[in-house]
Amino acid sequence: VDHASGQQSECRFNIQYYQNTSRDATKKRPVILYAFKNGQTVAVCCHDEHTICSQPMDLPNNICETKHKALFYRTKVSTNLYMFESSVYTSRFLAFEPLDNNPCIHKLVLRNKSEDEVDEPCQVIVSQM
């Protein structure tokens, strides 16, 4: 967010894909979402049941565990539209919610939803760069 102008900068994340672990039978793909900030790789991490934080991280080549603060399970909704479920907090998905004091600016949060519930703020457009 550019605090001087009050404008939200374009929000882009990269996705690191991993081989399926214990969820082989499902259509959920394990991923880590990350960005580059000040020359560092920072990952999207679960802080608690509702809060997301960014943490500097060297992305692992493999993740053997099924629960990790930076690991999300990607599920396809439709063409280029996905949801990302926390591996730590089941039924909590990444979502964008407006800030209370400035509804034009959105923050990334974890949002509770059932698997079959339609929840547009939990749906994220993924495009090839």
TrEMBL record:
InterPro entries: IL-1_fam, IL1/FGF. The keyword Secreted applies. GO terms for cellular component: extracellular space. Pfam families: IL1 (PF00340). This is Interleukin-18. It comes from the Eukaryota. One of its GO terms (biological process) is immune response. Belongs to the IL-1 family.
